[in-house]
Amino acid sequence: MKSLFVTLLILGTVFAGYDYFLARPWERVIFEKGPKPAAVAQPTMPDHVVEDDGPMPPAPTAKPTDNWQPSVTNLPSKEFTPPVLQSVETITQNWKVIPKQAFPRTVILKKDVQAKMSVGSSTLRAGATVQAISADQGILTIAPTETSPARGSLPIIDTDFPEQILASYEKWKIARIDQARQVWLGAKTIKTGPSMDKSTLSNGLGIKFGSDGKPEQNPDGSYNLLLGIISSGRVTDVDPNKVTHWGIPELQTVDGKPTWVIPVRYETKTIFGLMEVNSRAFVRDQQLLRWVYESGEPLP
Q1: pTM score, whole prediction
Q2: Are residues 154 and 187 in the same domain?
Q3: CA separation (Å) from 218 to 209, 210, 300?
């Protein structure tokens, strides 16, 4: 009975402590109640949520156009411009057109080839050195030696012939560009009209024209107009001593105007060695208009 009384006393003490210290004033049971605070009005929410993203951003500006271009250095107008030279493949039409002046020459075989003669044939092995006699439409005719009657044939590209010509072309190209540069340098200090330089006019006839403007031809076939042009340095590829044919002037219409055209054939150094090439000199109003190869490329 005593223990029950002690338990109830403890529980009462705990409840009294809670009622005094922990219970909200207006909910107390044993001690005096305090006032209940007034209800705080809760703000009403709108029917839909309105989001505030802040001030409107400025209107986007147009993206600048990318006008970048690679930088290209412009050559001065009076700067030397190297001539545009055709590739070896273009000159030879992919090794189908080889002038006869390119032969004979020693070549090295890249493939085996049969060399035939009246009494039989023999096999020339790849790596052998043979004589190239001629070429036609990309096919090379070869002989074992310079004096051998045996003949064989194989594609040009199956020998080192293209490599030989390419090496010659690189040397020729350097010389041709240098030649053109010398002409350009000389042209800056000479007149563009008919040259009266007497150093090549040993005949003493001077530069003369007919009543129709036709250049007069010397007894040996040459023209003092063209000899003077060569002497002045305006044309360096032509050596008067290596001209094999001075043609007769033909009156043609060039650029809508009457022009005298003189064929000139001469020997010069090419990628195939020394060769005779054809050229044409255009003369109008007693002046050299231009002097070009058959291809239309100006003579250096």
Answers
A1: 0.56
A2: no
A3: 11, 13, 24
Number of domain units in the chain: 3
Q: What tokens appear for 78 in the block? A: 């009076």
Peptide bond between residue 162 and the one before it cis (omega within 30 degrees of 0): no
CA separation for the pair 214, 51 (Å, rounded): 96
**Inter-residue contact 239 to 259 (CB < 8 Å):** no
Domain-embedded: residue 131 = yes
- The domain in which residue 123 lies consists of 93-159
Residue 57 located in a structural domain:
no
Do 193 and 186 meet the contact criterion of CB atoms below 8 Å apart?
Answer: no
Read off the pLDDT of residues 140-175 as tens digits, 9 standing for 90 and up. 999 999 899 999 999 999 999 999 999 999 988 888
Cβ atoms of 132 and 140 closer than 8 Å: yes
Q: Are residues 225 and 196 in contact, defined by beta-carbon separation less than 8 angstroms? A: no
Chain segment 35-73, per-residue pLDDT in tens: 666 555 555 555 544 455 555 656 555 554 444 444 444
